[in-house]
Amino acid sequence: MSTSRKKIMILSVIFSALMISFSYSLVEVCEAQVSFTFTSSDTEGIAIIGDTIEFHSTLTNTGSTGDTYDIEKIEKPPPPLDWVVELCTGTFCFDESVNYVAVYLDQSDSEHVGLRINTLSDGPGKITIRVTSQANPSLIDSITFILSRPDCGDMNGSGSINLSDVIQLAKFYFGVGDPPGSNWASDVNCDASINLTDVILIANFYFGKLTTLNCCP
Prior knowledge:
Layout: H1 3-33, E1 36-39, E2 44-46, E3 51-61, E4 67-74, E5 84-89, E6 92-93, E7 100-105, E8 110-119, E9 125-133, E10 140-148, H2 163-173, H3 183-186, H4 196-206
Parallel strand pairs: 2-10
Antiparallel strand pairs: 1-3, 3-8, 4-7, 4-9, 5-6, 5-8, 9-10
Helix pairs in contact: 2-4
């Protein structure tokens, strides 16, 4: 075999070895470069009629290259039908009919992802936001945001039963105040009516003359 042919064969073997090594390195880099985090510090709240509640989360590209993310609003189990649930990215909230958006992020970039909810009735309700990497669709994360009803008797959703609940409900009953924030939490004897009896029962509870209030299940 000629010397030149031997050189060609040696170079061919070296080249093949380099290509195999490069291929393995490329696979390792590709596997390592796609990642993200999806986090939130406020995932629970209380829903009363007429509230506008916002939930906030942060999507961050923690990989070594840019990526596009599918962001989906999933209403299963559905919230009350008369709630208006809007998906938000950045500073913009989409129409309630929009359940999906795609967001591109460069390496180390972050984006605000959230919900704006108009609660036209009492809770409870749950809405999930799911994020999927387009570069690696097996990378999926989600956060479920939960809105609960207030405690029975806490008709303004303040987090406690106090004198303001008594006064506001009394004003409403006598026609000189706004409707209660929560119809469910105001009907403390489950008789399907908000009346003077409810005002008296909440007052008795507040002043320690009653140990429990009984809203409907």
